[in-house]
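Human: My hope is that you can spare some time for a protein that puzzles me. I am handing you a single protein, as its sequence and its fold in token form. Could you go through the record with me and say what the backbone is doing? Take your time, and here it is.
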Amino acid sequence: MVTVPQVNDQPVNAVRIADLGLGRHLPQEEATVSALREAVFSVASDPAVARRVTETRARMRRLGGASRPN
């Protein structure tokens, strides 16, 4: 996930996503086309991010949340 937070709780959630290894936080003022492209390719090709997403999804399901597959 690449986050570009803009309002309310989005900045906090964006930092949390990055801290958990689930994606990358890109500040709005840095969100150019090339920066977004690089961030998306970086996250999509990072095996550590894929592993963390898989682990987090499994944990959420074990805890009873997010039972509907996306």
Summary: The first helix runs from residue 10 to 19. The radius of gyration is 13 Å. The mean pLDDT is 92.
